[in-house]
Amino acid sequence: MHSYKKILLAAAATLAFGTSAVAADKLKIGTEGAYPPFNLIDASGQVGGFDVEIGQALCAKMKAECEVVTSDWDGIIPALNAKKFDFLIASMSITEERQQAVDFTNPYYTNKLQFIAPKSADFKTDKDSLKGKVIGAQRATIAGTWLEDNMDGVVDVKLYDTQENAYLDLASGRVDGVLADTFVNWEWLKSDAGKDFEFKGDPVFDNDKIGIAVRKGDALRERLNKALAEIVADGTYKKINDKYFPFSIY
């Protein structure tokens, strides 16, 4: 009887392992924590935001236990590759250069870049009008790269370690304008600090695909893609989207 029970237990354990080894996995979500409304650290020290909630919804679909880890933007891809976390959801644009270092999932939202400047400023976004202006952007972002590629010799580009520092310099008049993701700018313009500022001109780049990064060759990419399709199909994505934006960003 005793040995029979043991065999049963062993069989049950094997069965559990066979069906739910994936279900019981623990994953670490990497993000920056300094890019509201997408990822931020709130007053209580909790990491939250659109990126983080999407990441947690994906974990729920994958039946994985997930914890959130933050990293400085400049070192965020090296941190992923050093296994500090398993997947990176930090509003990262899918670029050819980054694809040499990591693999990306299907895009989970699409962004565009747009200038903001004081409401009182006559700020046109053609090259002639921008000549000699000081424009801020976050370092190692699509906005910073776009300025360097398209406005070299036209504007004085000031790059910042965080988006928040770019906004601080805009608010104190140290830069004439800031180029950043439209949705992040939109969030800042709603704030008290941003109330005297506005969008200027049309978006300068409007097909910025944002993906989740994993280490090269990691099978987690396919699991994330499947989970992403599921949260879009069942309305979970829309629920998170609507909490942050009065329009769809998918």
Descriptive notes:
- The chain has 250 residues and is α/β, with parallel strands linked by helices.
- The chain has 2 domains: 2-110 and 210-244, D-Maltodextrin-Binding Protein, domain 2, CATH 3.40.190.10; 111-207, D-Maltodextrin-Binding Protein, domain 2 (3-Layer(aba) Sandwich).
- The protein has 10 helices and 12 strands.
- It has helices spanning 2-20, 50-61, 76-81, 96-99, 127-130, 142-150, 163-171, 182-190, 220-233, 236-244; strands at 26-31, 34-35, 39-41, 47-48, 65-70, 87-93, 102-104, 109-118, 134-138, 156-160, 177-181, 197-215.
- Strands 1, 5, 6, 7, 8, 9, 10, 11 and 12 form a 9-stranded mixed sheet that branches. A 3-stranded antiparallel sheet has the order 2-3-4.
- A hairpin with a 3-residue loop joins strand 2 and strand 3 (39-41).
- Helix 2 (50-61) runs antiparallel to helix 10 (236-244).
- The longest helix is centred in the N-terminal third of the chain and has 19 residues, at 2-20.
- The radius of gyration is 22 Å and the shape is globular.
- The model is unreliable at 1-23 (pLDDT under 50).
Could you name the ranges where pLDDT drops below 50 across 5 or more consecutive residues?
1-23
Count helical runs: 10
Name of the CATH homologous superfamily of the largest domain:
Periplasmic binding protein-like II
- How many beta-strand runs? 12
The topology string of helices and strands comes to: HEEEEHEHEHEEHEHEHEHEHH
CATH class of the largest domain: Alpha Beta
**Largest sheet geometry:** 9 strands, mixed
What Rg, in angstroms, do the CA atoms define? 22 Å
CATH names the topology of the largest domain as D-Maltodextrin-Binding Protein, domain 2
What is the helix content? 25-40%
Distance between the termini: 59 Å
Under the CATH scheme, the architecture of the largest domain is 3-Layer(aba) Sandwich
The average pLDDT value, as a whole number, equals: 92
Structural class: alpha/beta
